[in-house]
C-alpha cells in the first residue's frame, strides 16, 4: 500500500474532538437507533464510561467476562475506546435503541481508511481519491468535445477548491482538537491521594498539589480535586458510607447507635410520685413538688398497700405561686373501701403543665384508715425526641 510522498509519522494523525463534560461544555444525551451488523454496532459518538450505555431489556458485561465466555442473548459488551457495541449472534440484523452520553468524535484521516471490494486488492481512501483525480485528467485530455471538456474541467476545479478548503478546515480542526485534548486532560484527570479527616487537613497534608490530585474528606464524604488554583468539590460519597451498627461506625458512631437504640418510647414522659407512708392524716400533705418542664397530664393513679374500711378521697392540686391552689380533676380521686387502687371515675380538667408549676396532695377526711398511699402523675413532655 503506497502512501503520499509527504507522509511523515505525525503529519496525518487521528483527530479526536472531546467535550469537556463541564456545565459550560457538557456531554450530550444521545439516542442512536442502529442495526446490528456482524454482531456489532458502531455508535455515532464515543460514549461516556461513567454514565454507561443503556439498552432496554439487556445487560452490559465487563471486559473480563467478554473475553472468557460467549455473550448471552440478553448481554452486550461496549468498547468505550472506539465506540463499538458487541452482541450475541442471535441479535444479527436487529434494530437497537441505544442511550448514552456522547463525549465527542474520533476522526480518521483518509490514508488510514481502507476499502475492500471482495477481491485480493485493498486500497486506502487516499488512493481512491488520487486515482479518481487521475481518471478525470485522462478524460479531459482524451475528449474532442470542447463543451464537455469545459464542463468537466469546471467540475474538477470546483472539487479541487472544495478539497483545498476542506484541507485547510481539517488543519484548523486538528489544532483545535489538540488544544481540546490537552484541556480535557487538565480538567478531568483524577490522581487519587490518601484521604484526610477534615477539609482543613487538605492544605496541611498536600502543601504542593499537582493538577488532578484528588482526596476525600472523611467527616463529610466530599471529594476535592486540585484544578491548579484551588481545591474544588467534585462529588459526595455519603451514599457509600455504611449505616452504623453495634459493631462498626457508619453515618454515626457505634456508641451513638447503641445509645439511640436503647431509647424507649417513654423517654418523653416524666412522672411525679407522692408517697405518704403509714397513716394518712387530714389536710395538706408533704412534700410539695416543683415540675421543671412544659407538658400535659396524661394519667393519674393512686393506690394504698393497706386497704381501709372507709373510702380514701384525694385531691391533686396545682399552683404557680404556692398561694393559689386549684384541683386538676373534676372530682376527688377515690380509693374505695377494701380496695388497693382508685376507681378512675374522675376526669383531669386541668391537663396543661408549665415549667415551675407546683403540685401537692390534699386529704379532706380524717376518717381514713388505709395506709401507705402512693399517687403517680404521668406527664407527657412537649419537647420529645421521638
UniProtKB/TrEMBL annotation:
Q: What's the protein called, per UniProt?
A: Uncharacterized protein
Native organism is Lysinibacillus macroides
Amino acid at each position: 500500500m503506497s502512501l503520499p510522498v509527504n507522509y511523515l509519522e505525525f503529519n496525518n494523525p487521528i483527530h479526536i474532538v472531546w467535550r469537556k463534560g463541564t456545565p459550560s461544555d457538557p456531554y450530550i444525551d444521545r439516542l442512536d437507533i442502529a442495526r446490528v451488523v456482524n454482531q456489532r454496532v458502531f455508535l455515532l459518538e464515543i460514549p461516556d464510561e461513567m454514565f454507561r450505555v443503556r439498552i432496554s431489556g439487556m445487560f452490559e458485561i465487563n471486559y473480563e467476562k467478554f473475553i472468557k465466555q460467549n455473550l448471552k442473548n440478553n448481554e452486550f459488551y461496549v468498547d468505550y475506546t472506539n465506540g463499538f457495541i458487541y452482541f450475541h449472534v442471535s441479535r444479527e440484523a436487529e434494530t437497537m435503541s441505544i442511550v448514552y452520553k456522547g463525549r465527542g468524535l474520533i476522526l480518521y484521516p483518509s490514508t488510514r481508511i481502507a476499502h475492500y471490494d471482495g477481491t485480493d486488492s485493498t486500497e486506502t481512501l487516499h488512493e481512491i481519491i488520487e486515482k479518481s483525480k487521475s481518471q478525470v485528467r485522462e478524460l479531459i485530455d482524451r475528449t474532442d468535445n470542447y463543451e464537455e471538456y469545459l464542463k468537466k474541467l469546471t467540475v474538477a476545479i470546483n472539487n479541487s477548491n472544495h478539497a483545498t478548503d476542506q484541507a485547510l478546515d481539517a488543519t484548523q480542526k486538528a489544532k483545535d482538537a489538540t488544544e481540546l485534548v490537552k484541556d480535557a486532560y487538565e480538567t478531568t484527570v483524577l490522581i487519587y491521594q490518601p484521604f484526610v479527616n477534615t477539609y482543613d487537613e487538605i492544605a496541611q497534608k498536600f502543601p504542593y498539589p499537582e493538577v488532578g490530585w484528588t482526596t476525600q474528606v472523611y467527616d463529610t464524604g466530599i471529594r476535592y480535586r486540585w484544578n491548579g488554583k484551588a481545591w474544588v468539590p467534585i462529588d459526595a460519597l455519603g451514599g457509600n458510607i455504611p449505616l452504623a451498627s453495634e459493631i462498626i461506625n457508619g453515618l454515626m458512631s457505634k456508641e451513638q447507635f447503641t445509645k439511640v437504640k436503647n431509647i424507649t418510647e417513654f423517654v418523653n414522659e416524666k412522672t411525679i410520685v407522692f408517697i405518704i407512708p403509714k397513716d394518712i392524716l387530714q389536710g395538706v400533705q408533704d412534700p410539695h413538688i416543683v415540675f421543671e418542664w412544659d407538658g400535659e397530664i396524661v394519667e393519674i393513679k393512686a393506690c394504698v398497700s393497706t386497704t381501709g374500711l372507709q373510702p380514701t378521697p384525694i385531691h391533686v392540686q396545682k399552683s404557680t405561686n404556692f398561694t393559689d391552689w386549684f384541683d386538676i380533676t373534676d372530682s376527688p380521686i377515690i380509693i374505695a373501701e377494701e380496695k388497693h387502687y382508685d376507681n378512675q371515675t374522675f376526669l383531669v380538667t386541668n391537663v396543661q403543665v408549665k415549667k415551675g408549676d407546683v403540685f401537692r396532695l390534699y386529704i379532706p377526711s380524717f376518717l381514713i384508715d388505709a395506709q401507705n398511699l402512693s399517687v403517680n402523675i404521668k406527664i407527657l413532655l412537649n419537647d420529645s425526641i421521638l
